Amino acid sequence: MRRVSIAVCGALILIPLTPTRPAAAAPPGMPTVVEAINELALLTVADEEHDDTYGRNLFPHWSTVSGTCNTREEVLKRDGQNVVVNDSCTAVSGTWVSPYDGGVWTAASDIDIDHMVALKEAWRSGAHAWSPAQRRAFANSLGDTQLWAVTDHVNQAKGDKDPSDWKPPLAGFHCDYARSWIDVKHDWQLTLQEEEKEALEEMLATCTPAG
C-alpha cells in the first residue's frame, strides 16, 4: 500500500493511501434515461413463444473479428485495463471490473462475456423468426450495449432470466442495466412481457436526472 508523509508539529507521519479503485467499463451507445424511457414505450408487450425450440447453437457466437481475435477477446480488450494479449489474442494479464457486482479480477478466466439480453430470452422474444445471419450478428454485437464483461458466477446466476426474475447484485447499476436492456430490445425489435416492463420501469426510477 502506498503511503504519503506529512509533517505535524515537526514530526513526520506516514498516512496510508487507499488505492484508487478502477472503474467498470461500459459498451458503446448507452442511451440516456430519456431515450430509454421513450424506447420502452415503443416496445411491444407480448407473451413469449418457442421456448422449447431453443438451442444455443442457433446463435453462433464468438466469431472472428480480426486476425486471430474473436468477439470474446475483443470485449476483454475493450472493457479491461492494461490488457496484454499473446500472439493468439488470448488475454494473459489485465484488470477487469464487473459492473454487475463490482468485482475486480486480474484473470480473464474469471470473466464471462454476458449477452445483456440472453440468447434464449431473445429467441422467445422474437429471434426465433430471424435468419441465421441475424442471430449471429446479435450474438456477436459489438456496436451496441449487448455484450458486457462481468464476473463469471454472477453471469451464471443470471442465466436467461429477464429483469422481472433477476437484477444485478449491485443496486447502483440497476439504472444502467435497464437502459441497456431496453436499448437492445428496441434496436433488435424484440418484445417484452408485462412483468418485465414493470421491472424495467422500477429500475429506471433509480436513475438520477442526469442519467
UniProtKB/TrEMBL annotation:
<protein>
    <recommendedName>
        <fullName>GmrSD restriction endonucleases C-terminal domain-containing protein</fullName>
    </recommendedName>
</protein>
<feature type="signal peptide">
    <location>
        <begin position="1"/>
        <end position="25"/>
    </location>
</feature>
<feature type="domain" description="GmrSD restriction endonucleases C-terminal">
    <location>
        <begin position="110"/>
        <end position="201"/>
    </location>
</feature>
<dbReference type="InterPro" id="IPR011089">
    <property type="entry name" value="GmrSD_C"/>
</dbReference>
<keyword id="KW-0732">Signal</keyword>
<dbReference type="Pfam" id="PF07510">
    <property type="entry name" value="GmrSD_C"/>
</dbReference>
